[in-house]
Amino acid sequence: MSEGENNDKGFRLLNCEEASKHHFERAANKLKLKRQVRNWLRIPFREISVHLPVVMDDGNLHIFEGFRVQHNNARGPHKGGTRYHPEVTLGDIRGMASWMTWKTALLNLPLGGAKGGVICNAKKMSEAELERVTRKYTQAISVDIGPYQDIPAPDVNTDEKVMAWIMDEYSKLRGYSPAVVTGKPVDLGGSPGRKSATGQGVAHIVEQWAVENSYKMEETTAVVQGFGNVGYHTAHYLNKMGCKIVAISDTGAGIVNRDGLDVGKVFKHKEETGSVSGFPGAETVDKEKIFAQECDFLIPAALENAINGDNFADINTRVIFEAANGPTCPLCEPDLEAKGITIMPDILVNSGGVVVSYFEWVQNLQQFSWSEEQVDLELQKKMKNAYNRVTEKAAEEKVSLRIAAYMLAIEKVAVAAQTRGAY
Ligand code: NAD
Can you give the pLDDT at residue 422? Predict the structure, then answer.
């Protein structure tokens, strides 16, 4: 272990804020970023903390805590997802907001970075309770969001329906504003292809890596951790490209079939039973066990720190494609790299979501909709272009892919901030 405090099982985990600073400082050192710029870019522009009184179905009043952190808007309005989770913290939201700044810059989108969250157990709440929380949250942050200010989107435990409530509540307060949020239902101005965009983008990055490294997709295997929006769509598109999905997990369990899982049938099973657990035709295992499965591509698509001191030694893959945000504890990275495992960084790998969110925003502002074919084509172009820039920069600077991605992003934000005279 190269760094960090040992505990009885492995070593300390960094939260999203610590993880993002860890990567930022390394890239900033490599860029020799001036102290003033560095001090400005490492902290958020604005942090909003709200308390939301909501009457629950049983008649009791519950006070929920929510956040919106706006990290940087030098390149355009703040942009980022909204997470509903019982364990989300302001520190996590801060870290994820900065990841959005780097992601939008890396993909060359005219947007900045933000993230929001509400501490709640969405899975145990009724739809009516979720709607009341969402409307209260929207009212509370409505002054600070808007089509040219800050544009929320879906993240863990928030979906099209939640985005529709945000749009409706905001529009009641400020007039019809579909562009205030992305990831809406298509009938309300959402973009075709947005729901699947993050997973589709992950698959494009995997495919590009395979082409460059002379792997035939139909001879590859993948393990996917997390089977929500991102995990399911990633597995679906990889499978379509010929890759065999040998293991999948969710919060309930892991399932393994070395001959390949039928992703569509696993999805149906999860819809019917609530988990991938017990899927017929596969062995059900402890969810942590899937990390030890041999595969070409390991795809963490659940939460941060999935790959950590407890499991990194068992990992048996060629490349980790970070579909989730912050899934690899940074303190494990040197050891994984020493084992010859390539880590393809989250700010590149999962950026397909914000790319198509950007397309949705553009369509809303222009009041003109694109076809799904156009969205897919533009997404593919942007993902491949960003992949090439990151791999070229890593080779040029002799740094990891993550540091290369951060360097490209930080440079862009620093130039924009400086040119605008922000400091
Ligand atoms: P989601 O709520 O749709 O799905 C999360 C999945 O992770 C669920 O299947 C859940 O069961 C599973 N999970 C949680 N803990 C797990 C564990 N310990 N082991 C195995 N599975 C576990 O969320 P999502 O939108 O798919 O987001 C997943 C990740 O991708 C998050 O890190 C999110 O920030 C990131 N991301 C999402 C988007 C997007 O467009 N939704 C875009 C970029 C990044």
Answer: 63
Query: Which residue has a Cα nearest atom 30 of ligand 1?
Result: 324
CB-count exposure of residue 160 (10 Å: 0-12, 13-18, 19+): middle
54 phi and psi, to 5 degrees? Answer: -130, 130
Q: Could you give the strand order of the β-sheet that contains 150-154, starting from the edge strand earlier in sequence?
A: 46-55, 61-72, 113-118, 78-84, 150-154
Q: Which of 198, 253, 256, 251 is nearest to 222 (CA)?
A: 256
Report the run of H or E that residue 90 belongs to, with start and end.
Answer: helix 90-106
- The verdict on whether 115 is a catalytic residue reads yes
Q: State if pTM tops 0.85.
A: yes
Q: How would you classify the pairing of strands 61-72 and 46-55?
A: antiparallel
| Per-residue pLDDT tens digits for 285-305 | 999 999 999 999 999 999 999
CB atoms within 10 A of CB 365: 12
In degrees and rounded to multiples of 5, residue 366 shows phi and psi of -85, -10
Ligand 1: which of 98, 155, 308, 322 to mutate, most ligand atoms within 8 Å of CB?
155
Identified catalytic residue from 79, 115, 136, 287:
115
* From 156, 191, 204, mutation site for ligand 1 pocket: most ligand atoms within 8 A of C-beta: 156
Kindly list the protein residues whose Cβ atom lies closer than 6 A to any atom of ligand 1: 154-157, 198, 225-231, 249-251, 287, 301-303, 323-325, 350, 353
Structure tokens at 209: 């890596």
**Residue for token pair 């960084």:** 345
Which amino acid is residue 52, in one-letter code? L
* CA nearest neighbour of 354 among 101, 84, 94: 101
Question: Which residue's CA is minimally distant from atom 28 of ligand 1?
Answer: 302
What are the beta bridge partners of residue 315?
none
Residue 359, token pair as written in the block = 């397309």
